[in-house]
């Protein structure tokens, strides 16, 4: 494919890689969450969607995690567990100053992170943004409160609001021929009016 990123079965788009089990069944278990928080790796994410990162050598980057005992006050979000059952949380707060760490955005370092770190950072930023943009019930206008370790918002009447976690992709279906001789498939909604419709 010319002029784009070819993605085959052996590769995945940088921000689609995963190394984290979101462990949805744990989100409603307060006792497990409290125990997990005590041993968690915590990623601090600023309200602007930045976190701390450091160079890991060989053009790769790694996220800077802190212990839960050192985490600042802020919205606490359970992100999941890794293959060793280590829990990961994010806290939405101003970034601390730590040695050899610099603030970065997901766009700046996403492709240079490990699968686990990519999954942690992507999930943390998505949830933090969702909370920032959904503070009031779309049905009643009442303030929303976080529940289920940050994966649910509830208004005073009990109405629930969930984050959108459905994937979306942009693709080009083509015949594999480069240049002007190549062909691609175009779709058109029958409801659209105009030329050729």
Task: Report a brief summary of the structure.
With 197 residues, this protein is α+β, with helices and mostly antiparallel strands. It has three helices and ten strands; from the N terminus they run αβββββββααβββ.
Protein described:
This protein is of the alpha+beta class. The protein has helices at 30-38, 106-109, 115-133; strands at residues 41-45, 51-57, 60-63, 66-67, 75-81, 87-92, 102-104, 145-147, 152-154, 160-161. The strands form three sheets. It has a four-stranded mixed β-sheet with strand order 4-1-6-5, sandwiched between helices. Strands 3-2-7 form a three-stranded antiparallel β-sheet. A hairpin with a 5-residue loop joins strand 9 and strand 10 (160-161). The longest helix has 19 residues, at 115-133. It is globular, with a radius of gyration of 21 Å. The chain starts with 29 loop residues before the first helix and ends in a 36-residue tail after the last strand. The model is unreliable at 1-9 (pLDDT under 50).
């Amino acid at each position: 494919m010319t002029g784009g990123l070819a993605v085959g079965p052996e590769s995945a788009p940088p921000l689609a890689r995963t190394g984290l089990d979101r462990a949805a069944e744990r989100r409603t278990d307060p006792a497990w969450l409290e125990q997990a928080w005590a041993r968690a790796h915590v990623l601090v994410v600023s309200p602007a969607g930045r976190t701390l990162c450091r160079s890991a050598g060989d053009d790769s980057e790694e996220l800077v995690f802190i212990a839960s005992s050192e985490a600042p006050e802020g919205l606490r979000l359970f992100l999941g567990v890794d293959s060793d059952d280590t829990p990961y949380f994010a806290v939405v707060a101003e970034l601390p100053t730590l040695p050899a760490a610099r603030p970065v955005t997901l766009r700046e370092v996403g492709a240079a992170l490990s699968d686990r770190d990519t999954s942690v950072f992507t999930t943390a930023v998505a949830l933090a943004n969702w909370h920032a943009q959904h503070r009031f019930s779309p049905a009643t206008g009442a303030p929303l409160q976080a529940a289920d370790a940050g994966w649910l918002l509830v208004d005073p009447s009990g109405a629930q609001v969930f984050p959108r976690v459905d994937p979306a992709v942009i693709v080009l279906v083509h015949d594999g021929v480069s240049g002007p001789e190549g062909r691609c498939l175009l779709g058109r909604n029958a409801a659209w009016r105009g030329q050729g419709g």
